[in-house]
Specification:
By secondary structure, the chain is an all-alpha fold. It has a domain of about 110 residues. The chain is about 80% helix and about 0% strand. It contains five helices and no strands. Helix 1 crosses helix 3. It holds the Pfam family DUF1003.
C-alpha cells in the first residue's frame, strides 16, 4: 500500500530533491535580484567606467610587451567582455522583474482579501448600528425611562442573588404591564 508522502512527490524523484529545489531556485532568484540591483547603482556605473578607462590607458600607454589588448584593433577583448556582461545582464534583470511581478501579484491578492474582509466587517457594523437604533426607537416608543431600566436591573440582580424572588418579580412585572395597558 502506498504511503501518504508518496502522493506528495512526483514519480521518480525523492522527496528530499523536491524540498531542496525551491530553496535553490529561491537562492538563485535572490542572487539575480542582487545583481540587477547592483547593476542599477551609480557605483556600478562608476566602477565599470573606471575599469574601462584603466583598461584603455594600460593598453595604450604601457610598454608593448605588457599590453594584452590592442588599441589598433579597437580593444577587441574589452568589447567582448562588455558584450558578455551585457548579454548576462539582460536575462538577470528580466528574472528579477519576474520575481517582483510575482510578489506584486501576491500582495495585490492579499490586499483584495483584506478589502473584502473590511467591507464585510463594515457591513456587519452598519447592521448592528441599525439594530441598536431600532431598539432605542422601540424603547423610546414605550417611554421606558432610565428609572425603569434601573429598577429592572436591580430586580435582575436581586433575582441572581436570591432565586426565590423570581416569583415576586414576575408578579411585579404583570402589575406594571397592566398599568401600562390602562389608558
Amino acid at each position: 500500500m502506498a504511503r501518504a508522502q508518496d502522493f506528495d512527490s512526483p514519480r521518480g524523484r525523492s522527496p528530499r530533491f523536491v524540498e531542496s529545489a525551491p530553496r535553490s531556485s529561491d537562492r538563485f532568484g535572490r542572487a539575480t535580484e542582487w545583481v540587477a540591483r547592483a547593476m542599477g547603482t551609480p557605483w556600478f556605473l562608476l566602477l565599470l567606467t573606471m575599469f574601462c578607462v584603466v583598461w584603455m590607458v594600460w593598453n595604450t600607454l604601457a610598454p608593448p610587451a605588457w599590453r594584452f589588448d590592442s588599441a589598433a584593433l579597437g580593444f577587441t577583448a574589452l568589447t567582448l567582455m562588455l558584450s558578455l556582461q551585457a548579454s548576462y545582464a539582460a536575462p538577470l534583470i528580466l528574472l528579477a522583474q519576474n520575481r517582483q511581478d510575482d510578489r506584486d501579484r501576491v500582495a495585490m491578492e492579499q490586499d483584495r482579501q483584506r478589502a473584502e474582509r473590511n467591507l464585510a466587517d463594515t457591513e456587519y457594523m452598519a447592521r448592528e448600528i441599525v439594530a441598536l437604533r431600532m431598539t432605542i426607537d422601540d424603547l423610546s416608543e414605550r417611554q421606558i425611562t432610565r428609572e425603569f431600566l434601573r429598577d429592572e436591573l436591580r430586580a435582575l440582580l436581586a433575582e441572581l442573588e436570591d432565586p426565590s424572588t423570581a416569583d415576586e418579580r414576575a408578579a411585579e412585572e404583570r402589575r406594571r404591564d397592566r398599568q401600562r395597558e390602562r389608558p
